[in-house]
Design a protein that fits this description.
Layout lengths: L1 E4 L5 H13 L12 H8 L4 E4 L4 E4 L13 H10 L5 H6 L6 E4 L6 H10 L4 E6 L2 H13 L5 H9 L1 E4 L2 H6 L6 E6 L14 H6 L7 H10 E10 L4 H5 L2 E4 L5 E7 L6
Parallel strand pairs: 1-2, 4-5, 4-7, 5-6, 7-8
Antiparallel strand pairs: 2-3, 8-10, 9-10
Helix pairs in contact: 3-5, 5-7
Length: 263
């Protein structure tokens, strides 16, 4: 894998590319006048991280579309919250202003954004992503994406995205130190018609959630531990979650109410 830029990078883009190259232990290669295809063929590589003026993109050489950050449906959900409407995840978790939330499997950070907006300026959202490339792409997107709505942009900037294994992170936290712990592991039964997730699926960690991680989540959470999965998944029963369907969606949420929880 290499890290490069668009063909005429600004000093800011160039600095970002070199910083990411160091972070990802990948060589930085000046773009020059080469196309990405030419670079790949000449260097016999298929994985590229490309820093443009607007975003960071990841190309794996196997899909036509690159992976890059975009709030997508999370933006729609947050706009509903702005209008005073409800969101199923916010309701199920009991998320409210001032809450501390850990999104243990952040991916594209869609749910992290919803949590961040709901928790507000007095709250805190930590988004954990175990895959370094995915973490870097999304973290840079959260830091620079412009939605046109200042309060939504502020919610993005408040998210603290870190590259770590969620089980290790949870194990190091004190008891009852956060309000909500959330898991959205890669579905055991993929929803294949969700084409937008294909670039993510090729890069993301698809390991099953462990009971040890869930037990750590219960230990550190004050309010709820919630998991998102395919509605027909057996993971809810295996891991001790109460399955709760959401309308006619193909997904469902599992909820563990932490005994004796109080804010």
């Amino acid at each position: 894998m290499i890290v490069t830029t668009s063909d005429k990078p600004s000093q800011k883009a160039l600095a970002t590319a070199k910083r990411l190259a160091g972070e990802l232990s990948a060589p930085y290669v000046a773009r020059g006048r080469q196309t990405l295809r030419q670079m790949g063929e000449r260097m016999e590589i298929i994985r590229l991280v490309v820093v443009t003026e607007k975003e960071v993109r990841f190309y794996d050489g196997q899909t036509e579309s690159p992976l890059y950050f975009h709030p997508s449906m999370a933006f729609v959900r947050v706009k509903r919250l702005r209008r005073g409407e409800s969101d199923p995840l916010v309701e199920l978790t009991g998320c409210e202003p001032g809450d501390r939330v850990i999104d243990c499997t952040a991916g594209l950070a869609s749910d992290s954004l919803v949590f961040s907006y709901a928790a507000g300026e007095s709250g805190a959202v930590t988004a954990i992503e175990s895959e370094p490339i995915l973490c870097a792409v999304v973290r840079e997107g959260l830091a620079g994406y412009q939605s046109g709505l200042p309060d939504v942009d502020a919610a993005m900037r408040r998210i603290d995205m870190i590259n770590v294994n969620h089980a290790d992170y949870l194990a190091a936290l004190p008891d009852n130190s956060v309000d909500i712990v959330y898991f959205d592991p890669m579905f055991r039964q993929p929803i294949h018609e969700s084409n937008a997730l294909e670039p993510l699926r090729k890069l993301a960690n698809d390991s099953a959630l462990t009971s040890e991680a869930v037990n750590e989540a219960i230990r550190v959470a004050r309010k709820t531990v919630v998991m998102k999965e395919h509605r027909e998944s057996g993971e809810f029963e295996r891991l001790g979650f109460e399955r709760r369907h959401v309308n006619t969606s193909k997904i469902a949420y599992g909820v563990i109410e932490v005994a004796g929880s109080s804010k």
